Amino acid sequence: MRVVKRSGELEDFDPAKAINAILRVGTSPEEAEAILESVKPYLYDGMTTEELYRRIRSRLPAPQAQQYSLKKAIMLLGPEGHAFESLMGRVFEQMGYQVLVRQILKGRCVSHEVDVVIVKDGKKATVECKFHNALGTKSSIQEALYTWGRFLDLKDTNNVEKPWLVTNTKFSSEVVRYACCMGMHLIGWKYPEDGGLERMIDEAHIYPITVLDIRRSEQRTLLYHDFVICDDIVERKPELLGLFPRETGERIIKKTEEFLRNVR
């Protein structure tokens, strides 16, 4: 049986990949196997991965279902990349880095607006965050070349040791080859295999507000007022209650606290 990926490509259905995706949200191996068995009667040749994920998601408890939809939730942070930059800043903070977001740094030739600057153990790096809100989009070689070119202009004047390129989707094979050759750090969806973006977020327990089961209009209001991660809601309750009718605000806070309680 073959499935249709978001990019339109066909690939053989891999039960192990489906099991790993279910395990990522904290189910036991036995539960993951049972969930996959329950959807097998609905599988067919040419099924889209989106339909497959939707069927799996419907069989998960609410908090785990929200966590399972992390990729879609990150895309809902758009259409601009501002919120994704903030999300990554908070993830790096949780990983023990000192973080500055959206900084203007003077290079040898020109000044640059850098998405995220991280420092750890005295070593500084720049992070280019490439946000995509279209399914199946891959970060291209042009983005890698741009990131490396910016690094070259900044490294001597700002003591930058290396650049990172982070995306919420995947990288083209050209990008991977170029980054390996130049020594550029890549973080993308399921890349690298042992530490991709989804694993970084899960391990940091830093989740975007778009994982929450609330109205899209409410998500947009929160994002407009720089509520980007679930912790923002818990930490800024009085401000949130000023944005909505009290009943709505209390419902959002309750859903957030329930979600965080279940994933931590």
Broad shape: globular
The fold-level CATH name of the largest domain is: Trna Endonuclease, Chain: A, domain 1
The whole-angstrom Rg is 20 Å
Distance between the termini: 36 Å
Q: Write out the strand line-up for the largest beta sheet, numbering strands in chain order.
A: 4-5-6-8-10
- The residue fraction in helices comes out at 40-55%
Number of helices: 13
**CATH architecture heading of the largest domain:** 3-Layer(aba) Sandwich
Structural class: alpha/beta
H-E order = EEHHEHHHHEEEEHEEHEHHHHH
Your description of this structure?
The chain is α/β, with parallel strands linked by helices and 264 residues long. It has 3 domains: 2-60, no CATH class; 82-204, Trna Endonuclease, Chain: A, domain 1 (3-Layer(aba) Sandwich); 210-263, DNA polymerase, domain 1 (Orthogonal Bundle), CATH 1.10.150. The protein is built from 13 helices and 10 strands. The protein has helices spanning 15-23, 29-39, 49-57, 62-68, 70-75, 82-94, 141-158, 173-182, 197-204, 216-224, 230-235, 237-241, 246-263, and strands spanning 2-4, 10-12, 47-48, 98-106, 111-120, 123-130, 138-139, 160-167, 170-171, 185-187. Helix 1 packs across helix 2 (29-39), helix 4 (62-68) crosses helix 13 (246-263) and helix 7 runs parallel beside helix 8 (173-182). It is globular and about 60 Å long. The chain starts with a strand and ends with a helix. The model has no long low-confidence stretch (mean pLDDT 92).
List keywords for this structure.
264 residues; alpha/beta; Trna Endonuclease, Chain: A, domain 1; DNA polymerase, domain 1; 3 domains; five-stranded mixed sheet; three-stranded mixed sheet; 19% strand; globular
